[in-house]
Amino acid sequence: MSYASLSVKDLTSLVSRSGTGSSSSLKLPGHARPVKVIPLQHPDTSDDARPPSIPFDDILSGWRAKIKRMSLVDWVETLFPCFRWIRTYKWSEYFKLDLMAGITVGIMLVPQAMSYAKLAGLPPIYGLYSSFVPIFVYAIFGSSRQLAIGPVALVSLLVSNALGGIADSSEEELHIELAILLALLVGILECIMGLLRLGWLIRFISHSVISGFTSASAIVIGLSQVKYFLGYNIARSSKIVPLVESIIAGADKFQWPPFLMGSLILVILQVMKHVGKAKKELQFLRAAAPLTGIVLGTTIAKVFHPPSISLVGEIPQGLPTFSFPRSFDHAKTLLPTSALITGVAILESVGIAKALAAKNRYELDSNSELFGLGVANILGSLFSAYPSTGSFSRSAVSNESEAKTGLSGLITGIIIGCSLLFLTPVFKYIPQCALAAIVISAVSGLVDYDEAIFLWRVDKRDFTLWTITSTTTLFFGIEIGVLVGVGFSLAFVIHESANPHIAVLGRLPGTTVYRNVKQYPEAYTYNGIVIVRIDAPIYFANISYIKDRLREYEVAVDKYTTKGPEVERISFVILEMSPVTHIDSSAVEALKELYQEYKARDIQLAISNPNKDVHMTIARSGMVELVGKEWYFVRVHDAVQVCLNCVQSSSLEEKKPSFLRRFSNNNGSSSYNDLQSYNTLLKEPLLPVEK
């Protein structure tokens, strides 16, 4: 396909024809050299062509095709992911590693589970219950081979906050019943989201929101445990102000023995944790730290019997029994908290599981993982467990201990079972301050000040989001903090979507490459031509913004370095649409209006490189015929060549001496050498002259 430049009269005629929907090939009369472009293939929009598909139809057809391809083994592995590692298990190579990893995590989990149960406002035994059945269930239905599930600090705080708003702290039985019901609700939500593959919804929450929320929650958790160090009760709250006020108000009741013991154990825990992280050969210290603190505290309490140090007290011996929640009266009240805990599970547990899977080179489906967590919580709730999820610290220890399969989780579950059967009589001597020290040590790493410094250095907007979320969580509570953080996160997403990045493109010297003139100052534009790239899908929410920017660029483009013949106004606007992944009907109608507006001002619209779906939508709307098929191009460079020849021809007609104009009219053409004498060609020709 070849194009030649137009005279002013021909150009006006061409714009008029394209406005009437001409779809014939553009035959450009005139005098300048021909220009070669790559022809763009337009889609078939006839009735026989495949109709536009509904996204759900594509999803369902994909599922049907996948189901047809699945064999019996595939079905078994889908329902029971544990069979993926059972079939390929190498006993001589894996068993020793799984055994050591399971024992290590189990030793770490026993004291942590009891500590987190106290944080949740429950008796310590329920922390062990929550670490027993869910672990066995997850080993069967979970996809991750290194993820260590059980009670965690953040979920325990959410449970405590939810239960504190419903029942008084003195109503222990109601607290336990509500916590078990909460585990059932969380499990059901996780299963539903996993089956419907809705885990992607949480992607709209910024990482800075999660980091700010977690950091603030860690501070609240730490302050809530200070009462065991100080020796007196403080207000039960998820807000920092009431906690600090009650700590100051009760200062006259301060007792030294629990403070000294708790501080000593906390220092030992921190030292062992940091040494274990720093030196690989001593990494066992990190896992052994909680058990060391418990043993030390229990020994001191058993030997010296200090009266001012409170102990855990009697703990029931034996495995949990099967029971179904007796009442669902408070289910509606607990739904927001269960949704929040499910969100934490997706963001933390699934995120950790995917990272560990990538590190250990096996595939993991996030929705299948979410379903496995849901089944673990549902069945766990039938055996007196409160909500469980993946633990970052224990999963890191499991991975560092080189756990290879889910067998390590089964071994951890066996250790918890043995503790319930044989060790509970010893647990009654554990000091409360020792459990508090374990919690404080665990959450100290959740205060992500490094992330705040990084965000301040890299992205002030994300730092603002981090600050807003952490501040509102600290001063107004967990629910308000989450809502505000998520609200601002969604507002930023909507703002970015409604105000997409749009760039004026210029040509890099010596190339046929066009880039953002702000990013590449050496790039130059052409007089009379505006090239604009839209870096986002075009839809009803952002089309007005895009139209406003296009109108501005007609004027603003003059400030960039320009080449080509001198012209008084813009004659062509080229839209580079390769980054546009989707365009809706509202945007198409707006583009039609924009085209008509351009047409009224003698400006020709050209479109470059729309993708298949966008091109099909435009074609079905009739916009291809409206603009003219000849004004759709494969490359920006092709569009520029055609538009530039038109601009050059217009300039030549205006600058020719009268005798040359008469000569041109009489002969109908002029030689390329004649045109060259007027120095209207580019210093860098678009294409070599055809002989």
**Which of globular, elongated, flat, extended, rod-shaped describes the shape?**
elongated
Q: What's the main sheet like?
A: 6 strands, mixed
Structural class: mainly alpha
* Poorly predicted regions: 1-31, 658-691
Distance between the termini: 17 Å
Structure summary, number of beta strands: 12
The percentage helix is 55-70%
User: Overall pLDDT, averaged?
Assistant: 83
Radius of gyration: 35 Å
Tally of separate helices: 28
* Strand residue percentage: 5-15%
The spatial strand order of the largest sheet comes to 6-5-8-10-11-12
Could you give the topology of this structure?
Blueprint: E1 2-3, H1 8-19, E2 35-36, H2 55-69, H3 72-79, H4 82-86, H5 91-119, H6 125-129, H7 133-141, E3 149-150, H8 153-164, H9 172-195, H10 207-230, H11 240-249, H12 256-278, H13 284-304, H14 331-359, H15 366-381, E4 389-390, H16 392-400, H17 407-427, H18 432-444, H19 449-458, H20 460-476, H21 478-498, E5 502-507, E6 514-516, E7 525-526, E8 529-534, H22 543-556, E9 562-563, E10 572-576, H23 585-600, E11 604-608, H24 612-620, H25 623-627, E12 632-633, H26 636-655, H27 658-667, H28 672-676
Parallel strand pairs: 7-9, 8-10, 10-11, 11-12
Antiparallel strand pairs: 1-2, 3-4, 5-6, 5-8
Helix pairs in contact: 5-13, 5-16, 5-17, 5-18, 7-15, 7-17, 8-14, 9-14, 9-15, 10-11, 10-18, 10-19, 10-20, 10-21, 12-13, 12-18, 13-18, 14-15, 19-20, 20-21
InterPro entries: S04_transporter_CS, SLC26A/SulP_dom, SLC26A/SulP_fam, STAS_dom, STAS_dom_sf
Keywords: Membrane, Sulfate transport, Symport, Transmembrane, Transmembrane helix, Transport
Domain STAS: 519-643
